[in-house]
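step: validate -> pass
step: tokenize input -> pass
step: predict -> running
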Amino acid sequence: MHILKVTQAYAPFLDKGGPAVKVPAIAKRLVQRGHSVTVLTANYGAVGDGQIKACEWDGVRIVYLRTIVRYRAITLNPGIVTFCLQHLRAFDLVHIYGLYDLLGPTVAFFCRRFGIPYVVEPMGMFRPIVRNIRLKYLYHRLLGWRMVNGAARLIATSEREKGELIEDGIPAEKVFLRRNGVEAPEQLPEIGSFRKHWGIPPDVKLVLFLGRLVAKKSPDMLIESFAEILKAKGGKASNVLLVLAGPEEGDGYLKYLRSLALQLGVKDNILFTGPLYGDAKWAAYRDADVFVLPSQSENFGNTVAEAIMVGTPVIVTDRCGIAPYVDGRVGLVVPYDRKALSNALQTILTDEQLAERFRRNCTQVAKEFSWDEPVTEMETLYRQLVVRGGLS
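step: predict -> pass
step: emit ->
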């Protein structure tokens, strides 16, 4: 099959979030299975010049469209119309990742015009939450619903996301459930390398948050819960450290987090590392005593799966799609509540037997995050839709 994947973000722009990691993982595996895969994405200024710049990586042809205007995740890419008119008919099927951009709706429009089946993977974005809610509803009214209604399938990555899509008006038969996978490097960094780099003693308990520093993921609630633990220790503790690692979005949220840490008197026990990629990211996972994702809403939670891959216990809220894999097996699942999160942190940091049991279980649970099954499911769905012309 000739498959086109449309995503607002793709490698090397890893600071743009999950799609820049997930889409390459799926694309290269489809290529390994004999399919021709092209990725259409935005250029954020690091890949050549011109309206359209194409290159190849892991057998995947990547087409970067020049960006002339950008607002948060939305980019204006004039080359997209030219690409669709000249090349879209060559593809058997299109897979669109994410919402709240202009790439997906534009390609979907031409797919409907040319009779090409397409699927949409909302990636937890379908239900507007946290910020710019009115603009998101406006997006759905003007672009989103038309794109979704014309899709052959919507891809949900957890039972939680599937339920939300159906609750929000998507017919159940149109929702296809396919979990995410995780890809660890062939060789992990040496244990202790993250601590050595940042001067963290081996006897210090390390609590790790790794992801985009955005309100949706609630690093502020984690700081507040962490402050409660220190308060219980008398307000000072040299043997516990919270690491907040991830890119900011230039909206002042990082400044707010630093101010909050100062206000709560815990700034000396919090390390802001900035974004971590490659070996630096995996080294942080390996050296952490516990990984925490206190998200308000997470369709899956790939960072949690990555932490599990290297044997680190985790804490997540029950609003994360990955929670059923975690609960009582490799970590704790808590309500979206500051006190509940504080109690869970205290438990894992002090109950060595429980933490060790979670670490041992990580090896088995990690096997459940292979990409093999999800890619096979995608391949099967693609074939069905191509044969039926997107209808079933």
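step: describe -> The chain is about 40% helix and 20% strand.
step: cleanup -> pass
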